[in-house]
Structure to design on (417 residues):
């Protein structure tokens, strides 16, 4: 092959590498997201917390309504009117005006109010748990956006290293110390790194969009400056008495027990009393009327509703036992995962340091001709893998902190922001 024909492929490889490297110098305008702590203060405006707050307001309104006594009934009866004979018209009519009201005996009102209060207590605890869940989701979305940003940065650095290694290989090809195949391989690696960067950038932009939507940030987020991945997890507290899920299950069990009382009271007769006045047109006289009425419990004794309420209580009691068992196991597992993730982060950081030193030495050896391009590629791949593992370890630590925070009933990284 003539020198001219060999120079053209080398020039093509060099031009391709220059085109790939030129994309790294494009400016990026960033609109940083608020810090996680700032977004946490605005958590009350998110749809999940607003929904939970509205449900609690509705439960409180039902408590107020349960305290209200039933309205009295005003009745007007006209007898012996518009008939035949002496009852023609209203001259001999008997007119009664009466006021009747339920007496609400047997503790009917008290049972109703107690059941409504128990329901409101359970809904209030569910509202608190919903706020904790919303804080955990916010922390996860924020961390995932930061992870996507770091992976895009890592992909950009990988592309830069790959282009630099390919240029070094091309220089050795130009000197005749390496075959032309090495330059072509370098170009292929650079093109693959470019495709990886494009994919990482797309994932980063998608993560920014999710963070903007979940956190309800007015302007689209284009960067995450305040790191949550590097934040230290909250110190593990001693074992708490009851997890939020257990407290919710206890409140639901208490509400189910109150509903049994309500149904038992409903089985008793609902007595109504009335008082009124009657006008006798024929005698031109008036008299008071008194009355009392009650249904006879011959057929409907509310047994079905009582049995249904008792069954619901047994189900709530079973859910409480399950919640207690799961809370103990889940918290022990969350503490173990958090401890393991902290150790994993330290190990990953040490691996990154070792991989960076190995790559630096390999690059020196490659440029001096003491090691091959294959060995340089292996150390570069190890460096990329170590950096990626460090990012994954930090995300795992955030997930472990979110799980433990939910079991403790607090926001993730509470007190660290």
């Amino acid at each position: 092959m003539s020198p001219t024909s060999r120079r053209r492929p080398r020039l093509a490889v060099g031009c391709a590498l220059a085109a790939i490297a030129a994309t790294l110098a494009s400016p990026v305008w960033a609109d940083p997201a608020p810090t996680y702590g700032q977004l946490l203060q605005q958590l009350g405006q998110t749809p999940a917390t607003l929904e939970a707050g509205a449900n609690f307001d509705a439960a409180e309104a039902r408590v107020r309504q349960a305290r209200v006594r039933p309205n009295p009934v005003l009745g007007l009866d006209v007898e012996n009117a518009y008939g035949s004979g002496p009852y023609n018209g209203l001259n001999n009519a008997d007119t009664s005006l009466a006021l009747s009201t339920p007496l609400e005996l047997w503790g009917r009102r008290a049972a109703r109010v107690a059941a409504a209060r128990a329901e409101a207590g359970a809904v209030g605890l569910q509202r608190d748990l919903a706020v904790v869940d919303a804080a955990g989701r916010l922390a996860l979305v924020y961390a995932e956006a930061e992870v996507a940003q770091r992976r895009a940065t890592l992909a950009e650095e990988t592309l830069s290293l790959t282009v630099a290694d390919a240029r070094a290989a091309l220089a050795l090809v130009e000197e005749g110390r390496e075959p032309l195949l090495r330059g072509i391989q370098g170009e292929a690696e650079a093109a693959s790194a470019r495709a990886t960067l494009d994919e990482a950038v797309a994932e980063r932009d998608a993560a920014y969009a999710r963070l903007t939507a979940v956190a309800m940030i007015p302007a689209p987020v284009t960067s995450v400056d305040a790191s949550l991945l590097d934040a230290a997890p909250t110190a593990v507290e001693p074992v708490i008495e009851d997890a939020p899920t257990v407290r919710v299950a206890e409140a639901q069990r208490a509400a189910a027990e109150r509903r049994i009382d309500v149904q038992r009271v409903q089985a008793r007769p609902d007595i109504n009393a009335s008082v009124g006045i009657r006008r006798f047109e024929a005698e031109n006289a008036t008299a008071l009327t008194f009355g009392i009425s009650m249904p006879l419990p011959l057929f409907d004794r509310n047994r079905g509703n009582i049995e249904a309420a008792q069954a619901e209580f047994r189900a709530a009691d079973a859910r409480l036992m399950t919640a207690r068992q799961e809370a103990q196991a889940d918290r022990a597992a969350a503490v173990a995962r958090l401890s393991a993730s902290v150790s994993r982060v330290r190990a990953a950081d040490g691996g990154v340091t070792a991989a960076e030193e190995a790559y630096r030495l390999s690059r020196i050896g490659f440029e001096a001709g003491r090691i091959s391009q294959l060995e340089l590629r292996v150390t570069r791949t190890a460096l990329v893998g170590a950096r990626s593992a460090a990012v994954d370890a930090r995300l795992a630590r955030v997930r472990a902190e979110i799980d433990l925070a939910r079991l403790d009933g607090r926001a993730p990284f509470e007190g660290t922001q």
The first strand starts at residue 73 and ends at 79.
